[in-house]
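In practice, a research group might receive sequence data for several interacting partners and want a quick structural hypothesis before committing to experiments. The following worked case mirrors that situation: the sequences arrive first, and a predicted assembly follows.
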Amino acid sequence: MEYFSNIKWRAISLTFCIVLSFPHGSSGEIPPKPTGSVTVLPPIKPNDGPQAFPDAEKENLPVFTMDYPRIQIPFEITLWVLLASFAKIGFHVYHKITVWVPESCLLISIGLIVGAIMHSVHEEPPAVLTSNVFFLYMLPPIVLDSGYFMPIRPFFENVGTVLWFAVVGTLWNSIGIGMSLFAICQIEAFGVQDINLQENLLFATIISAVDPVAVLSVFEDVSVNEQLYIVVFGECLFNDAVTVVLYNMFNFVAEMPVVEPVDVFLGVARFFVVGLGGMGFGVLFGFAAAFTTRFTANVREIEPLFIFMYSYLAYLVAELFAISSIMAIVTCALTMKYYVEENVSQRSCTTIRHVIKMLGSISETLIFFFLGVVTITTEHEWNWGYILFTLLFAFVWRGLGVLVLTQIINPFRTIPFNLKDQFGLGYGGLRGAISFALAFTLPDNIGRRQLFITATIAIIIFTVFIQGISIRPLIEFINVRRTNRNLGTINVEVHCRLMEHTIFIFFFFFYFEMQLTAATTNNIWLENIGELHF
Amino acid sequence: MEYFSNIKWRAISLTFCIVLSFPHGSSGEIPPKPTGSVTVLPPIKPNDGPQAFPDAEKENLPVFTMDYPRIQIPFEITLWVLLASFAKIGFHVYHKITVWVPESCLLISIGLIVGAIMHSVHEEPPAVLTSNVFFLYMLPPIVLDSGYFMPIRPFFENVGTVLWFAVVGTLWNSIGIGMSLFAICQIEAFGVQDINLQENLLFATIISAVDPVAVLSVFEDVSVNEQLYIVVFGECLFNDAVTVVLYNMFNFVAEMPVVEPVDVFLGVARFFVVGLGGMGFGVLFGFAAAFTTRFTANVREIEPLFIFMYSYLAYLVAELFAISSIMAIVTCALTMKYYVEENVSQRSCTTIRHVIKMLGSISETLIFFFLGVVTITTEHEWNWGYILFTLLFAFVWRGLGVLVLTQIINPFRTIPFNLKDQFGLGYGGLRGAISFALAFTLPDNIGRRQLFITATIAIIIFTVFIQGISIRPLIEFINVRRTNRNLGTINVEVHCRLMEHTIFIFFFFFYFEMQLTAATTNNIWLENIGELHF
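A structural hypothesis for the assembly, expressed as tokens:
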């Protein structure tokens, strides 16, 4: 039955993919001719009407009409989300795979297959992985998920290390990789001499950004010790400030003939604006949310909405002022979490947590899926030398960076990182969709834009597949300190339940006694208690 | 403190309204000049980038930039939703008002105020109450909310009456009002002789549609007996089939010179297609959802998503084929509810219910709010005679219809409707946003389109305010049979909890005993039990 279900699901998923590939017009515009076997009558005024309408020449009232363009956008979004959800179900039905292959790899693979199908029928992918859609709609839920469920105490115990790796580590990687690649560009054999230093630095910034989505999806399956987990996790979230500033700076500088020293100083100033501004907005909106939930006692059904609205506002306002939106939303979530969970009802609390997890999960699924789709459908420019050296340098500089930075930070740590931890830190630095989206936002006046996009995709696929699949066996092999967390959780949960049930017993006896007393004076109670056959 | 909070909230809401009215460009397009006190540098390529960028002429790296157009859409949506939520909080803080004035009236009033503010600063309202946005995004959550929480047993016990009122009642109203208005149009003094019979019938169809949103928001506060509640409620939901067919038919016919008998026959055929097709799709997707949730044991975090996706797909597919989408989504919710709630986890179940309520609540709030805003900002064409007679005929024909139809259906009912129930039925027939949206979808070739829109708004405002506010005192005055529902619910809930706690007790003792046995062999348990000081 299990095997059959598995086949069934794969068949259903594949059929779905094939069916889905049909109704896509070019880049989501209204297709010239909707598909389907029905005689479709073109709609006349009004287009917004609840039904399409025949031409006046047709004599009789139509009994059966179809109007696809009107519902196209929500319909296709719903179908893609449903397809991604089926893929998730499918993976978990075939359980053995998810033990060794991270879900991110599976999703990218499915995306590659779907992309191949769409490419073969000459369909355009849905115009959804534009940078705007990614940064404004797909990334916030994931970051909110990460921020809301971040373990607070381990985070603040390691905040120095986190910021050290996030800021200095990203700088180290960007500049190191950028300059190495520039050195490689000087070699005539590779044919990339037209890429100047600034462009190399810009590209290096894009691929230095360790991606929270990719890292999370791998580290959740591999139970490393909390120190390691929180440092990698925190680094992903907080390197956004540095990435934003460096990207800005190198983009700006790439277009300028002369770089003045004051610009470097302004760059440093901008880093503080971006980082502290992001945190400031996050705290502001976090406190606003906490304050608002004091007054929601009579509107319990919309309580979760405030949490989502305030977090999203923090993100958008940070985007508005071009400061680190990831830091804003993470800080907002961190700030408001405990106040909100005290103020809202139990149901709202459950709903908030579940909806955040749900949105984060489906966003992550869609991102990897579309990563696979767009990989096939984008025009690539391949250059063996540049791309292979990119992979090499990314790997080498990450490793060197972790080694050097750990040596410097270890004396300040209560629990120093041993070599095995450092391996985990270095090897766990996966790149993902943020690099991808940043690559797509490269301005068109950069000559080798396609090469950069191809190289970014290459490094993402490499880290997610090779490092993502191999990290678990390697960590088990070298015996990195594992977490006690799971065991602790069971203990905690058992004792919480014991306490709950104890309290219930007391209330039950108290209550039952009250009812028995009341029952002698109230017929309805007697009738109903009688039903209980107590 | 309470009074101060109330003032504070009103002040905050008003300030918010004023602030919000500023950044609106014309119909949501990119404003030519973003407001704000910062020096805004126009963005250059790439527009999609994570930050805006200065021109190349500027020498130094900008430390502070702003890019509003990029985030405009999600930002404004979020702000409007937040404003609507604050309005809801505000109403409930000032609790006495909501006892006598339904929330719908308050929201329309706030909308009128905001509309007036926007009009005075010559801002366009956000282009959100287009019919497409209303029918595709704002209506489905409300109807899903209604359908998902519809009491099943009372509904099926009254299904005959519901369908009788929904179908025949709506027909009666449409044709009656239409023909009466046509008779009025013949009187020269009113100056509306150019409106022919078909246009009158079309307009009558629009305003005959009793609106679920308006009715629910009033009947929830007034605890009438279930029979009355379920018939009015069911009628609102299921008259959609008739409204769709009639609207189609009269719209089509209004453009045709000759109406053939076969068209009337096709109209009847279309009614069956629309009604049964809607229910068919609903049942199909409902079973698909029920089936899918059998396999979601390993993906608990995205379980609620399936419910929303399938319901929305049922709605969209029905819209695609121009059949009754409201019936589709209600039937889908009815079909899948019990299967789904058995299959999903407890948390998912809570989340689903809460999110449905949340989305329905906020959609309803937004609809009434925008109804108020657009009332001010639309161009009106007033005609005293036509509009007053519209109000009169709507009222009279509704009353007559209820009387006549009840006389016919009462012999078939177990609990016949007495005259007081009939009053509730007739008086509770409020019109709302569905009529409004349908009015906006009238084709432009109808000469008196503006008059129809103005008349529709007039009747909505009249029924929601006059009937909505007066229905509660009138029902109490004439002493309509009230519900026992609330008392029954408390009983049911108490006994459910008694049962739960009983079960917990047994498990607790059993469990505790197991642990004590295990404790002798396991140190960890002893340590932790010791902590409990048991």
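Before designing any experiment, note the following. The mean pLDDT of chain A is 78. Residues 442 and 449 of chain A are 7 Å apart (CA to CA).
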